[in-house]
Design a protein that fits this description.
The chain has 4 helices and 6 strands. The protein is globular. The strands form 2 sheets. A 3-stranded mixed β-sheet has the order 1-5-6, sandwiched between helices. The chain has a 3-stranded antiparallel β-sheet with strand order 2-4-3, with no helix packed on it. It has 122 residues and is α+β, with helices and mostly antiparallel strands.
Length: 122
Amino acid sequence: MTIESKANNWRPTAKLPALQARAEFYRTIREFFAAREVLEVETPLMAARGVTDPYIQAFGVDDKYLQTSPEYAMKRLLSAGCGSIYQICKAFRREEAGNFHNPEFTMLEWYRLGFDHLQLMD
């Protein structure tokens, strides 16, 4: 590695057009759910327990675990009566890495009260 390449290795790999496209995509998602009166929520990224799915491996951090999905925390909100909700968040899964998988990724999860799976797909 040359001195010049070492001096420039701090630069992000994401290009500005990609960052702008992502921001526009998030704006579109938020407008979609806002128009349907679905509340955006944010749940903790760390939890005291890992997941119960034996095929998903969580990252441990000290005595906590990074979330593999916001599902459990969001279902707690549902059971507490908060209504239809969605979340755009980071999720973390060990042993899922490759050309099409990254251990850290962004997930969109939503729940609509009174909707069946066909209505959710529509």
